[in-house]
Amino acid sequence: MMECSTNNTFIAFRVSCIILIAIALVLQGISLKKDARWDQYVTGAVQADIRNPKVYQIKAYQSLWRLTVKSDEYLDEDYRVYVDEYTSKTEWREEVLRLELAGMGLGSLSFSALVMASLVPKFLKIKKLQITDILGCTILCFTSAILIFSGVVKYSENYQTILNPIVKEYEWFYHMTDNTLAMDFYFAFGAAIFHFFGGVSLIIHLIMFMRSGFKKDETKVETIEVQELA
């Protein structure tokens, strides 16, 4: 009866760990789509004729792959909000992309190792293999969370660098109405959180798994002693 309860606990913890990592990978996958939006900008410029003012709208957003700019119509050079001098400086974005891809890669490796060790019957019977697997997946989960979170922080510190400084200097002219981080940015942040909690769950899983092993060993010793006394 006790062994059955232990097996159920083992399965419940293993499944919960796999689900947490899977959710993290799904969120990370959404945030890394080519058409993802990590931030968004809505700006405009007043027409030179003040007697008949018109705001030329510019909508823009970034993903880790590219900057997309859409405008109502061609703007005079003086009205340009996004200039080549600033949009070409993408080294920081490329570094963030590398961090996010590395985080997703390690998370995928953790997920694969955990699932494989759970589905192959032969692996389930090898205690040392299970302990090594859980420990390795724990390290991968935490490393993945750190990499993704580092990328998120770096992005939040640099995403406004694509704006021409003139925009902030002449806010009345450029009518900046939106300059915020978008949903896909928060999906990546959520992925880091789920990887972290996946790692915490794996630590608890490892402790309980090892404790259940010690209890089985103690039961075997007690059984042997009773038989010898008999």
Give an overview in words.
There is one protein chain. With 230 residues, the chain is an alpha+beta fold. The chain has a single domain (2-229), classed as Butyryl-CoA Dehydrogenase, subunit A, domain 3, CATH 1.20.140. Helix content is 67%, strand content 11%. It contains eight helices and four strands. A four-stranded antiparallel beta sheet has the order 3-2-1-4. It is rod-shaped and about 80 Å long.
Helix tally equals 8
Q: Could you tell me the mean pLDDT?
A: 80
The name of the CATH architecture is Up-down Bundle
The oligomeric status of these chains comes to: single chain
Identify low-pLDDT runs. Answer: 1-5, 214-229
Which CATH class applies here? Mainly Alpha
- What is the H/E string? HEEEHHHHHHEH
Q: Assign a percent range to the helix content.
A: 55-70%
Note the gap between the termini: 24 Å
Summarize the helices and strands and which ones pair or pack.
Layout: H1 2-31, E1 39-46, E2 55-62, E3 67-71, H2 84-87, H3 91-119, H4 121-124, H5 127-158, H6 166-169, H7 171-174, E4 178-181, H8 183-229
Antiparallel strand pairs: 1-2, 1-4, 2-3
Keywords for this entry:
230 residues; alpha+beta; Butyryl-CoA Dehydrogenase, subunit A, domain 3; four-stranded antiparallel β-sheet; 67% helix; rod-shaped; disordered N terminus
